[in-house]
């Protein structure tokens, strides 16, 4: 997934999928793994 598809706003993480990604992964669970940084 391209980093441009991920938006972080405070504690909210938004993933924007392309139409192709939705068609390829429709109905499947999305696993989100990230490293938290203290700023």
TrEMBL record:
Gene3D superfamilies documented for this protein: 2.60.40.740
Protein name stated in the entry: Uncharacterized protein
Taxonomic classification: Bacteria, Bacillati, Bacillota, Bacilli, Lactobacillales
